[in-house]
Amino acid sequence: MKTLYLMRHGQTLFNKLGKVQGACDSPLTAKGIADAKAAGEFLREHDYHFDQCFSSTQERASDTLELVTDQPYQRLKGIKEWDFGLFEGENETLLPKTYYTEKSYDDFFVQFGGESATDFQDRVVKAFTEVMTEIPDGQKVLMVSHGAVMFRFLKALIPMAEIIENVSFHNCAILKLTFDGKKFTFIEQVR
């Protein structure tokens, strides 16, 4: 059995301003930096150790990981955030109110040069599966990624009602999952 700890990046300027942030990037705020350091301290205090670490290729994720631990890590394109096309950098109030529904945004962003929900979810699930398949049995992995990545990954594993009831995707949230070589199992929200 292998263990995956999946973490969201710290608060960014666009998070603070309520801007759509998928393929585009913005820097961590002072709060984002402080929260990432606090998450690292939480992990150390609770004796979490990681054999390998990974990050999205986006700066907000890699910066968060570097604040959480000084371990070497690999950056992965497959776990970067959803591409929202022309909505990148726009106010979040312009987005459809369908995010926490069974279809989520479906194909909405395709007409604006972004990714469909299905393509995005397939990319994310494939990336996590490929990495965890290569990890030796018994190892613990930390991956820092994004809110929609975490949401769509869990959506592929558990019912929507369970996600809404049991999971928060706040900045620096940490989820624990296991991988038996064939399937992922969501265990708990650690932080």
In short:
With 191 residues, the chain is an alpha/beta fold. The chain has helices at 13-17, 30-45, 59-68, 117-134, 147-155, 160-166, and strands spanning 2-8, 52-56, 74-76, 140-145, 174-179, 184-189. Helix 2 (30-45) packs across helix 3.
| The CATH H-level homologous superfamily | Phosphoglycerate mutase-like
H/I helix tally = 6
CATH class: Alpha Beta
Determine the fraction of residues in helical runs and give it as a percent range: 25-40%
Rg, alpha carbons: 16 Å
For the largest beta-sheet, the strand count, sense and barrel status come to: 6 strands, mixed
Our count of domains comes out at 1
Question: How does this model look, in words?
Answer:
The protein is of the alpha/beta class. It has one domain (2-189): Rossmann fold (3-Layer(aba) Sandwich). 34% of the residues lie in helices and 17% in strands. It is built from six helices and six strands; from the N terminus they run E-H-H-E-H-E-H-E-H-H-E-E. It has helices at residues 13-17, 30-45, 59-68, 117-134, 147-155, 160-166, and strands at residues 2-8, 52-56, 74-76, 140-145, 174-179, 184-189. The protein has a six-stranded mixed beta sheet, with helices on both faces. The chain is globular and about 45 Å long.
